[in-house]
Amino acid sequence: MKLAVIGTGYVGLVAGACFAENGNQVVCVDKDESKVRTLRRGKMPIYEPGLEELVRRNRAEKRLVFTTAMPQAVRQAQIIFIAVGTPQGEDGSADLHHVLEVARQIARSMNGYKVIVDKSTVPVGTAEKVREIIRRETTHPFSVVSNPEFLKQGAAVEDFMKPDRVVIGAEDPRATELMTELYSPFTRTGAPIMVMDCASAELCKYAANALLACRISFMNEMAQVCELFGADVDQVRRAIGSDRRIGPSFLFPGVGYGGSCFPKDVQAILKFAQEKGYDFRILGATEQVNAEQKGRIVKKMEAHFGSLKGKTFALWGLSFKPKTDDMREAPAITIIERLLAAGAKVQAYDPAAMHIAKGIFGNRVTLATKSYDALMGADALVLVTEWNEFREPDFAKMRKLMRGAVIFDGRNLYSREQMRTHSFTYFSIGR
Ligand SMILES: NC(=O)c1ccc[n+]([C@@H]2O[C@H](COP(=O)([O-])OP(=O)(O)OC[C@H]3O[C@@H](n4cnc5c(N)ncnc54)[C@H](O)[C@@H]3O)[C@@H](O)[C@H]2O)c1
Hints:
Shape: globular
Oligomer: single chain
Order of helices and strands: EHEHHEHEHEHEHEHEHHHHEHEHEEHEHE
Number of strands: 14
Radius of gyration: 23 Å
Strand order of the largest sheet: 3-2-1-4-5-6
Helix content: 40-55%
Bound molecules: nicotinamide-adenine-dinucleotide
Structural class: alpha/beta
Low-confidence stretches: none
């Protein structure tokens, strides 16, 4: 099939490359010229495992091209995906101006029947708004479809190629048929393609993210209760995770959730529910617990050291989660800002996000080129993101490099036995 994907970010680029991989002809459009230039040079604007190889192969096969020219991309395509950002607006609601602007531009370039697909995460009613805009701008026939994306950064290619389910919100059979045909190679292993009305499809994505955010905040609160009673949250997590009704995922307490989705999507539901007069209380609490959680590790540091002024801290992990360079709403940002405000010095390291951190902190933070370099002369290590390379470090070497033998483990990566063996003073979450 001939496709256009508008917006070449984490979602658009992965979707475009994966659609091409299954034999489709894909034109990826972005208004950011430097991003398009980077992609045309064969370089990736983001870090995502497996993506570079996929893009390289499909460009070489001429199934995947990158451009800033939307009209040509729209004219050649049967199906056009809108995958632009929907950031949080000032009042917490999803800012739809990129989506609606793209819808207008698509409509103005149409030359026949097109399926226009909302892949961005958008509030209920957006498909209707997109439909309205297009109707005003063109006389050509078209269908608007809602097709939320559930990929996880860090495993985006794998998730896209083998989704747990595909959700299609569509109101006419012609569009449903085309979308089902497009996705059938991705669901050969039996994952369902769920066809439903647009409003339900739009809500699915928010419901999934909100429930996952809720589980994280629940476990962060459970960790606090464990600390109060001298219980071990890891034991509690394992026990409840083996209950088939609960399952083991998203039960890890930590330094709070971040990223470009959970915080803004929780805010967006709160806002659109409120607009209909409903106060979504659990999500209000989820968000409040999360905001507090990001600062709790700094409170533990203050409780241990007293004043943090003049202290040096090594910080491992800057991205909001492992295997991505994305630092949007990353807990590391809150933690570092608080440490700096308290007069501490921060020496940070991350396997992928150093270039982003440089843009955020400039020279206010020392960015180490290797994980062990960050430890040099540090009073303590703060572990923020659980990259694999931090899981089994050389503790004896760490002791030699650090001034103090203290670890604040925001992800419960290390065991208390390990810490005792290497004589570290150790603080974790809920243990
Ligand atoms: N990042 C994720 O893990 C994820 C997962 C599922 C869904 N989503 C949703 O998908 C959407 C996109 O997210 P993302 O993380 O890929 O965003 P992103 O910020 O990484 O990428 C968006 C891209 O759209 C481009 N763009 C904006 N306006 C444009 C226009 N008028 N014409 C052409 N290009 C334009 C931007 O230049 C940017 O490259 C959001 O709604 C997000 O909530 C994200």
